[in-house]
Design a protein that fits this description.
It is built from eight helices and nine strands. A hairpin with a 2-residue loop joins strand 1 and strand 2 (19-21). The chain is an alpha/beta fold and 220 residues long. Strands 3, 4, 5, 8 and 9 form a five-stranded parallel beta sheet that branches. It has a single domain (50-219), classed as Rossmann fold (3-Layer(aba) Sandwich). The longest helix has 15 residues, at 91-105. Helix 4 (91-105) packs across helix 6. Bound molecules: zinc ion.
Length: 220
């Protein structure tokens, strides 16, 4: 009588932080986040199609808002790849563009902070994506990336579900800052209404920061 051997095959994937990534995500590791072509995380074709942000509105409490790219196309894909797919190398082209923008426009701040992620999200991904961006940008600009901000109080409602006015109200007191007398550059992946950056700025200025600037990869 034939006995078919039972073979247990480990699911294909790779560990990123504490999370096992599935095969599809693993296969994406050597491909462009924009078009999926093999090679770098951002191919030259997709990079050439990236556009400047459509708006440049000021954010209350923030001295200047710097963002090299509109939140669309491959720039959006890079952010989602970094945030949701655990592919840390997606931070590199984002940080390159942010650094170039900072050098072109000029920064007053001498310390870099970042908008801290929610603890549960950070645990799931194995890293805080904004912290990764801050470290990459800080290394390129020769500025220290400091853990100046933390989230305070209960987890707030998801900003994307709220209207413009409610977004500001939702984040009142949502951040606390460590004392810092310098000018601070807050790094984040994306600026939409600026409510998050505004709440971070208020916390930093209450803690003594002289000025607060915002440096993001994209603006929607
Ligand atoms: Zn591409």
């Amino acid at each position: 009588m034939d006995v078919t051997p039972v073979v247990y095959i480990e699911p294909m994937g790779a560990r990123v932080g504490n999370r096992r990534l599935g095969a599809a995500q693993f296969l994406g590791a050597g491909a462009c986040a924009g078009c999926g072509s093999r090679g770098a995380v951002l191919c030259t074709g997709c990079r050439s199609r990236l556009a400047r942000p459509l708006q440049d509105a000021p954010v209350p409490g923030v001295k200047q808002v710097l963002a090299p790219w509109d939140y669309a196309g491959a720039a959006r894909s890079l952010i989602l790849t970094l945030k949701l797919r655990g592919r840390r190398s997606a931070a590199e082209p984002l940080a390159d563009a942010m650094t170039k923008e900072a050098l072109a426009r000029g920064l007053e701040g001498s310390a870099i902070a970042w908008v801290p992620g929610h603890r549960a999200d950070t645990r799931l991904r194995g890293y805080d994506h904004a912290e990764v961006l801050a470290a990459e940008v800080g290394a390129r600009l020769g500025l220290p990336a400091l853990r100046l901000l933390r989230r305070a109080g209960p987890r707030r409602a998801d900003q994307t579900a709220l209207g413009r006015e409610d977004r500001w109200e939702n984040l009142e007191g949502a951040f606390l800052a460590r004392n810092c007398r310098a000018g601070v550059v807050v790094v984040d992946d994306l600026v939409t209404t600026g409510a998050t950056a505004g709440a971070c700025s208020e916390a930093l200025r209450n803690a003594g920061a002289q000025t607060v600037e915002l440096l993001a990869a994209c603006r929607a």
